[in-house]
Amino acid sequence: MSTFSVWWQNHRPSRRRFVQLYASVLYNAHLKGFAEGEIYTGKTKAVCVPGLNCYSCPGAVGACPLGALQNALASSANRPAFYVIGTLMLFGLLLGRVICGWLCPFGLIQELLHKLPTPKLKKSRLTRLLSYLKYLVLAFFVIAIPLWYAKDRIPFPAFCKFICPAGTLEGAVGLLSHPANADKLSMLGILFTRKFIILVAVLTACVFIYRSFCRFLCPLGAIYGLFARLALAGIRVDRSACTGCGACVRSCPMDVVRVGDHECIHCGHCISCCPEKAITLKAGKIVLMGNETGHVAGRNLVKN
User: Fold this and answer.
1) What is the spatial distance between Cα 265 and Cα 99, in angstroms, rounded to a whole number?
2) Cβ contacts of 44 within 8 Å, gap of 6 or more
């Protein structure tokens, strides 16, 4: 076997990585937007994509579910938010946090940053406690503030406006980096400066902490986590084969208490770590990643 073949065998992207890349390309398939520095406003923008991808990204062909939810809640005095809530429920019931692990462009960015060779912060009781912070962000910035402004019929997507690092990176930076929008740089104020600082802090944290934004701040992950017990697709454990050794939880880079709980992003890393081959990734009864390949091909299937 040649040197290149050995290198490729050890470094080739996993199936999950390919799916993440495909999803990122599909979410941002309007290449003309990148070329012209303009936001796509076609009919597909009325449809939400499953993962966190900013509506204002020059290539975005769909709406961000969080932004759509906030706008719908802020407009609830005029019309109920049935469409967006129903869409999120559909995503949650079908895939849950599989979306986080496989179909989220910002999750992919975080994972690639974490690959940089630096000391890494291991998960602990503190990170487990901090993982509940995203539910507070969901309750306050995504739900409470937009509903408060709904009484005055004012759309106010507070999370997008004050926090969202994906929006800052994909939307603001994506647009402002194009020469055609150079005149807009003079319009930037303290709000953008604060969001840019948050973006830099989040991206820096991702270098040292695995998917730090997903674990501690992402309200979309918090929503999908509510469907952990109901989602059709996800990690499943064969209880008859499981010995309770805990290897899966110890090896998981997320703050899970058990495989498949609300913090699990169903990346499949635990499949190759299970000595009893008791873990599979399934969609209903269909095995997507099986225990029969857990030790043979698992390294390449679920490599982070």
Assistant:
1) 8
2) 61, 62
